[in-house]
Amino acid sequence: MKNRTLLMIPGPIEFEPAVLAAMGAPTTSHVAADFIEAFGQSLERMRRVFMSENGQPFILAGSGTLAMDSVGANLVEPGDRVLVICTGYFGDRYAALLKRYGAQVDQVTAPVGGRPSLEDIEKALKQQKYKIVFVTHVDTSTGVIADVPGTATLAAQYGALSVVDGVCSIAGEELNMSAWGVDVALTASQKAIGVPPGLALFVVNPRAMQAFKGRKAPITNYYADWANWLPVMQAYEARQAGYFGTPAVNLVWALNVSLGQILEEGINARVERHRVLSNACKAAAAALRLNQVAIKPEWAANTMTALRYPPGITGAEFLPRVAKAGAYLAGGLHPDIKNEYFRIGHMGATKIGDVLATVGAIEFALIQCDYRFESGSGVSAASKAIFRT
Ligand SMILES: *Cc1c(COP(=O)(O)O)cnc(C)c1O
Q1: Which atom of ligand 1 is least distant from the CA of 190?
Q2: CA quadruple 218, 210, 251, 190: dihedral sign
Q3: Which residue's CA is the closest to the ligand 1 atom numbered 5?
Q4: Phi-psi category of 370—alpha, beta or left, where left has phi over 0 and alpha has psi -120 to 50?
Q5: What spacing in Å lies between the alpha carbon of 168 and ligand 1's midpoint?
Q6: Within a domain: 252
Q7: Could you tell which of 140, 302, 304, 333 is best to mutate to test the pocket of ligand 1, judged by most ligand atoms within 8 Å of the CB?
């Protein structure tokens, strides 16, 4: 595999060999006894990874967008007022999605790279009664991490449900659904969960399930209707077969392996590892005078880093050179600054050596772009940050 280039983007990420091996095994029946066991075990493991004591996990074939969509379809009734806390593109997108289901959507926003303060959020909650507050844990378009425990606490205080888009955070950033009072948390397989793209994963805690069961308006999405999937999830967890749509059998086999690895590493140790990798990457950026999109260091996520190009350097000249030196990075996503920054993912199976190699590749590309800096200073800062932590 010597021609291999590191895939250091905020999803899909690189996957553990055991996960890929599970994916490549011959496909079983979705009602085979061993598959029922793997599916049931995955549901139980999801509850532990999401730190939900008594929530209902769902595993659907689809991407993270389906997870977002299904929450909208099942919790929003026409005319419901909902509040979306925005820290980038994915928050704006959630607002657009919720309108499709007839929600009246208000947004609390911040300048690009910023995040609304809890005061801003509370002000909105005081002015208007909302049924649901949506928050993106890590907005992948800016690398900004939201204050999820603070937001969930406020939502509960003002009688609203809280929904966390954790696609770029779950299994990489700290999340404790039960302790924080988060009502729904959702993710996709291909980010910190560590499984190739194709699974929408979410856990619905009891308050949100009650809201779903008590809804009056019919659900206008057929595939995503929880009433169709709930009996299937309950059956598999009771180690029986269920059917509504064929599960993504190979992906579920892989998911069970990855969730097993995550729990074996330990959630706390895993979050700490992400913090160390992130600190290294951010220390390198600072040494190379590359500014983060996140306005304050404490607003920057641990699963990824979003960095502005130095003046005069464009993505078109920079990114292919980084790739040639060994690491694929992602370009910009936020429409307001799309061409002004790039993104590095460092989640899941990422190792210290991967981060050092990536920083080295970035330095190599910067030299080729005639950027003036002390060569080696980024790698040195990254490695010092690792030894400090
Ligand atoms: C990637 C991502 C999504 C969308 O997930 P897909 O699997 O691409 O549909 C949603 N929200 C956040 C925060 C993401 O990072």
Answers
A1: 7
A2: positive
A3: 64
A4: left
A5: 7
A6: yes
A7: 140
Domain end, chosen from 203, 236, 265, is at: 265
166 and 72: one domain?
Answer: yes
Q: Is position 234 within any domain? A: yes
Our mutation pick for probing the ligand 1 site, out of 65, 68, 86, 305, counting the most ligand atoms within 8 A of Cβ, is 65
The string of DSSP codes covering 296-315 is SGGGB-SSEEEEEPPTT--H
Task: Give residue-wise pLDDT tens across range 345-366.
Answer: 999 999 999 999 999 999 999 9
The pLDDT confidence band at residue 326, using thresholds 50, 70 and 90, is very high
Residue 388: predicted pLDDT: 80
Phi, psi of 209 (to 5 degrees): -65, -40
User: Which residue range(s) make up the domain with 324?
Assistant: 267-388
**pLDDT for res 40:** 98
For residue 117, pLDDT beyond 70: yes
> Do 304 and 342 lie in a common domain?
yes
Query: Which pLDDT value is given to residue 3?
Result: 65
Last residue of a domain, one of 265, 297, 329: 265
Mutate to test the pocket of ligand 1, among 84, 87, 89, 90 (most ligand atoms within 8 A of CB): 90
CATH for 190: 3.40.640.10
Span from the CA of 117 to the centroid of ligand 1 (angstroms): 23
Average pLDDT, the chain: 97
